From TrEMBL:
InterPro entries: DUF4247. It comes from the Bacteria. This is DUF4247 domain-containing protein. Residues 239-248 have a biased composition (Gly residues). Residues 145-248 are annotated as: Disordered. Residues 167-192, 203-216 have a biased composition (Basic and acidic residues). It comes from Paenibacillus xylanivorans. Keywords: Signal. Residues 1-26 form the signal peptide.
């Protein structure tokens, strides 16, 4: 009895660990990575900028927060929003040169400390978070940076933005979002969206259905249990004149 109880506890522990790992990873059915556009800084002081084409700032914020719940998110805004995680700050900005796109700036905590203007962040983040962030600077940031869209006017004090290299793309933090694809049923010109009850696991009611004829003489069982037809003739056999010898 004790062995069974111990085995059950171990199994529950393993299952809970697996579920926690899956929930942390998110594991979306379709992953779409935003292309990396610019890189600044090095070491633990880095900033990576991605481009979300044809996506508004609130749409990108919702997609990212659904995949990974942030510790803090700023109020919905069409031009600028912040998502704060433990060691990363996601600064979402509407591209001033292409309003239909959103620029996703992923800054390390140290990059924010050394470059951002704390008075600028007060319009988006709580006072407690800003105080904890800039505690080593006496409660205020040392830079005047206000984000990638203002980098020409408010330049970062640590490094400058450049085109990412192949090595930059390997170490850059990935951004994945959940998107809905579609599956076209073979033999049909209709398209069904995944997750809407259609697609791979649904059937078209308008398609023709086949039929199976059963012999009514056997009560609808058909096949092996049907009685032979009247036209059926038994095969002829010949009885030989041989004999059977019994083994002694």
């Amino acid at each position: 009895m004790k062995k069974r109880l111990a085995h059950g506890l171990k199994l529950m522990l393993v299952l809970s660990l697996v579920m926690s790992l899956l929930s942390a990873c998110g594991a979306p059915s379709v992953q779409d990575t935003y292309p990396l556009e610019s890189v600044s800084g090095s070491g633990n002081t880095t900033s990576y900028v991605y481009r979300a084409a044809d996506r508004t700032v609130p749409e990108v914020a919702q997609e990212l927060s659904e995949q990974r719940k942030p510790d803090q998110i700023s109020a919905e805004n069409t031009e600028r929003m912040f998502l704060v995680y433990q060691d990363q700050y996601y600064h979402l900005q509407q591209d001033p040169n292409k309003a239909e796109d959103t620029l996703v700036e992923v800054d390390s905590k140290e990059y924010v400390r050394q470059n951002y203007d704390s008075s600028f962040l007060q319009g988006y983040l709580t006072a407690t978070l800003i105080g904890n962030l800039f505690d080593s600077f006496g409660g205020s940031g040392s830079g005047k940076y206000r984000g990638y869209t203002n980098k020409d006017t408010y330049k970062p004090s640590e490094g400058s933005y450049r085109t990412p290299t192949s090595s930059d793309k390997k170490v850059a933090p990935p951004i994945t979002v959940d998107r809905k694809g579609s599956i076209t049923r073979r033999g049909s010109d209709k398209d069904s969206s995944v997750g809407s009850g259609g697609g791979l696991f649904s059937r078209n009611k308008e398609q023709s259905k086949g039929t199976i004829d059963r012999n009514k003489s056997s009560g609808g069982l058909g096949g092996l249990f049907d009685s032979p037809k009247s036209s059926y003739k038994k095969p002829k056999t010949r009885v030989g004149g041989g004999r059977i010898m019994r083994r002694r």
